[in-house]
Amino acid sequence: MSETARTATKPAGGGGDADGKLDPAVVKTALILIVGAMAVIFDTTIVSVALHTLSAKLDASVSTIQWVATGYLLALGIAVPLSTWGLQRFGGKRVWMFSLAVFLVGSVGASLAWNVEALIGWRVVQGLGGGLMLPLMTTLIFQSAGGKSLGRLVTYVALPALLGPILGPVIGGAILTHLSWRYMFWVNVPFCLIGMFLAWRYLKIDDAPAPGSGGSGAAGSKAKLDLPGLLLLAPGTSIVLLGLANAGTGSGFGQTDVILPLIEGGALLAAFVGYALRASRPLVEIRLLARRSVASSSAVLFFSGFSLYGAMLLMPLYYQDVRGASALSAGILLVPQGVGTILSRIVTGGAIDRLGTRVLALSGFAIVAVATVPFALAGPHTAEWQLAGWMVLRGFGLGAVTMPVMVAGYVGLEKHQIPHSSVLTRTAQQIGGSFGTAVLAVILQSGIAAHPRTPVTAFHSAFWWSVGFSAVAVLLSLTLPGAQRAPVADPGTASAERLASASVEG
Question: 136-150 pLDDT, tens per residue?
Fold first, then answer.
């Protein structure tokens, strides 16, 4: 995004000053929302290392205990599309506090679960709260910025995703090693309570629906729930996720419990697309995919699941199964990757506004590919300091990918379009992450079955596949918007959003 485009105008309540600095009010809003979002990020990263322990403590089979993660994922898929309607109907502040309350109740309930079925039920409650929270956080922060300084702003939006992989596995490993598994869910409680208080006391968000969003006047006076769209999109997304989860925990994509959900869910999603293209005010504005920025961002986020999320599954398993590390040790060994993402946050944020999203995403995926190669060659006794160095570099690449691709989905949008883009990009990321994780899990399981005495061979194969997926993602990054200098516009006749669009659509 050119300097001219970023400084030519500043809408009321916009996110940047004339020199490109972020409005302190926008930073305050972002930090308030991030406190609550940390509950979801920590919960996800902590629980991901706990399934083996939960299986033993609750005397449940692996296929049953997987529903602790799968049930949460399915509830997330149901709740994400509702965030757009909830924002229009009740206003951002109310929905944010409600979602935090739901996540808090689910967390406390999970900590008190008396058996595995109860735990799965409370995880579903958590998923409903988290599914509302994640797209809503992004929407509210970008709306408050008014289209200004998106590159700098995304460094705040991405903060939870960067801190979670650093601290989550360590905290989870420490709890599982020294305390009861029930304390895992109490980690969320302070974030929820403090987040609710800060939002109630300090969050300044206009609760009136934006023009063209389906409402007018006071929040929710005319915003109606698109029930047909909800009945197609929410179950369609959840059923697809169910099929992918079954593929990742079973014996591959050829099983009935994988094929049928994928077909059924895909049919529902296709029906939703057809319906939304005809509807005047659909639950999610699918027509936004006609915009290059939204379509390319969604496509890259979907495929990033193969190169990013799938490999994140492999890393802790590699340290535990090949190198014999404990859950706590594996969490500590993953810290260097998180350090790399923090370093990338420092470097990349301002560069997005200068260079555009394409160059940074392409470079980030290339770095991820290169830094994954050593794991495809490493043996059980490779020096940990060498792998730690590559983990830092890999984390840097992950951060360089996350932030610009997130920005790409919002450039050039009007305020009322931002919630719809949040749902589209979040859903693409969610399904892509599940797809990538399932594919690499199947590759890993097949390799272990073929070489049961040498699991390192199976991990080598899976890591090489991850490298290949990252290489494909490099090519996909070429479709993202690039930086292009825009002419000076009259602040009285052009919005910041249109200026942003002019600078990146080239």
Answer: 887 887 777 665 555
> What's the confidence (pLDDT) of residue 217?
40
Domain chopping of the chain, boundaries: 3-206+225-504
Whole-angstrom Cα distance, residue 11 to residue 54?
51
List the structure tokens of 157: 């939006």
The vertex-418 CA angle with 3 and 281, nearest 5°, equals: 145
CA distance linking residue 40 with residue 28, whole number of Å: 20
Residue 197 has pLDDT above 90, yes or no: yes
Fold of 3-206+225-504: Growth Hormone; Chain: A; (1.20.1250)
Q: Which one-letter DSSP state was computed for residue 53?
A: H
Q: Tell me if residue 50 falls in helix, strand or coil.
A: coil
CA 37 to chain CA centroid, nearest Å: 11
Q: Identify the band that residue 19 occupies on the pLDDT scale cut at 50, 70 and 90.
A: very low
Residues 292, 295, 298, 302, CA torsion sign: negative
Cα torsion 350, 411, 301, 241: sign: positive
Q: How many CA atoms lie within 13 A of 231 on its CB side?
A: 3
